[in-house]
Design a protein that fits this description.
Length: about 190
């Protein structure tokens, strides 16, 4: 493919991946293949090389939020742009996150990971109420569920697909292997 055409495809891929079109971030592989052609994975790899100096990367994940290798047929995968490193507090605040919401997310994830990746909602709320006061707790919890950082399955709350994709759970926990239960893999 000529360099000019490759540049145009990389720009198109960046626009598709960086500009959110729905409630759920990311673009399905089949959408990238339709927009970029059969060599969409090569275009995504080239985009990754361009994003690396900016501290960003494109990842492909399955329905559960598990990262996939950038090879083979990924038309059913979801492609997202994520930070390669955790954001600073200032970056998090300017991106629309409140510090107390981040604290609720961190405490929720730590509790869920300690419980094997899920826990009854009533238990999680009880733990969070002991640490966080005020009416924002219910709102923050619902927002985290709506955004996919936490998932509800009946009365159980689980680590959400976005947490598995966007957060280094091993680093959050500080113990290698504990978060593998929440990722769906072996310890």
């Amino acid at each position: 493919m000529p360099a000019r055409a490759a540049g145009a495809k990389i720009r198109r891929a960046a626009r598709l991946l960086l500009f959110r079109s729905g409630a759920k971030p990311g673009v399905k592989g089949w959408e990238l293949a339709k927009a970029l052609g059969d060599d969409y994975l090569e275009v995504v790899k080239a985009l990754n090389a361009a994003l690396e100096p900016l501290g960003l990367e494109v990842v492909a994940v399955d329905e559960e939020g598990r990262r996939l290798e950038m090879e083979g047929d990924l038309r059913r995968a979801l492609f997202l742009v994520v930070l390669k490193e955790p954001p600073t507090i200032e970056e998090a605040k300017t991106s629309g996150w409140r510090i107390d919401d981040l604290a609720v997310l961190a405490a929720s994830l730590l509790y869920l990971l300690a419980r094997g990746g899920s826990a009854p909602r009533s238990e999680l709320v009880g733990v969070l109420k002991a640490k966080f006061r005020g009416p924002r707790l219910a709102y923050a919890l619902e927002r985290l569920i709506r955004l996919g950082y936490l998932e509800e399955e009946g009365e159980q709350v689980k680590v959400g697909w976005r947490s598995r994709v966007e957060i280094d759970l091993d680093k959050l926990v500080g113990i290698s292997g504990l978060s593998s239960l929440a990722r769906g893999g072996p310890g």
